[in-house]
Amino acid sequence: MKARYFAWVRERIGLGEEEIAPPASVTTVAELVVWLKRRGENYAAAFADERAVRAALDRRHVKPEQPIASAKEIAFFPPMTGG
Amino acid sequence: MHKIVRLQKTAFDAAAEVASLTAGRKDIGALVTFTGHCRDEAGALAGLEIEVYPEMAEAEIERVAYEAARRWPLEALLVIHRHGEIRPGEPIVLVAAAAEHRAAAFAAAEFLMDYLKTAAPFWKKTRRNDGHPGDWVAAREEDDVAVQKWQTAPGKS
Question: Which domain holds residue B94?
Fold first, then answer.
C-alpha cells in the first residue's frame, strides 16, 4: 500500500510518500503505527506522541482501531490547521 | 443546488468570485460570505506556507458541502481554499452560502468554516521576518469546540 506523510510527520520521517508492505499480522491503523515505529528513529520520532498524529485510509479520516483491510492508501498527519 | 469547490495556489478576488456565483440568480434572497486572511502577527511573519493533501482536501470539502446542503435549504455554495505561499493581507479561504432566507445562509457558512478548520487536510507553517525557521501552526482547541455544536444542532432534520 502507499503511505503518505504530511506537515511535521513528513519532516520527521524525511519522506512525503512511500510504498509499504506490512505483514499480515498488522491489521489496524494502530498496529501499523507500531510496525512503522520499529523501522527507524525517524519513524519513532514522528509517532512519539501517537495521539498527536491523525490518520486517513483511502482519503477518509479514521480512528486508530480502524481495520486497514484492503485500503490502497494510508496517510498520517498532525491535526489540521486550514481555514 | 449550484456548488463550486476549488483548491488553488493563486490569490482570488472574493468580490468577483461571489458576483459570479449569484450572477443572473433571482431566487437568492440571502448571501453570507466569509473570507479568511493571512495576518502578519504585528510584523513578525513574512507569510504562511500551506501544505495540502489535495485529493483528500477536495473529497472532504465536497463531503462537508454535501452535508450543508442536506441540513439547510441552500441555493448556491462556494468554497475556495488556497495552498502554497501566502503573504500577509492576502486571502486564504472564501466560503459563500446563498439561500432564500438568511438563517440558512448564516448557519451553512459557519458550519462550512467550522468543518474546514478541523476536517480539511491543510497545514499552516509560518515564515518569519527575522530569518529564523518558521513553525507549524498548532491546532486550536476552540476550533474543536466550535465544530462540536453541529453534532447536537443538526440544522434541518
Answer: 2-152
Domains assigned to chain A: 2-77 (3.10.20.30)
Residue B156 clears pLDDT 70, i.e. is over it: no
- When computed from its CA atoms, the radius of gyration of chain A, rounded to whole angstroms, is 12
Band of pLDDT at residue B157, cut at 50, 70 and 90: very low
Among chain B residues, CA nearest to A62: B119
Percent of chain B with pLDDT over 70: 97
Interface contact B50-A59, CB threshold 8 A:
no
Most A-contacting residue of B8, B93, B95, B122 (CB-CB within 10 A), to test interface: B122
CA distances for B26 relative to A33, B75, B81, B157, angstroms: 53, 11, 27, 27
Q: Model-level pTM greater than 0.90?
A: yes
- Name the residue among A4, A56, A81 with its Cβ closest to that of B122: A81
User: How many domains is chain B built from?
Assistant: 1
Determine contact, residues A66/A29, Cβ cutoff 8 Å: yes
- The answer to whether position B157 is within a domain reads no
- Asked if B123's CB is within 8 angstroms of A78's CB, the reply is yes
Can you give the CATH number for the domain in which B130 is found? 3.90.1170.40
Whether the ipTM is more than 0.90: the answer is yes
Q: Is residue B137 part of a domain?
A: yes
Q: Do A81 and B136 touch (CB under 8 A)?
A: yes
Q: Which residues pair with B82 in a beta bridge?
A: B8
Q: Is residue B53 part of a domain?
A: yes
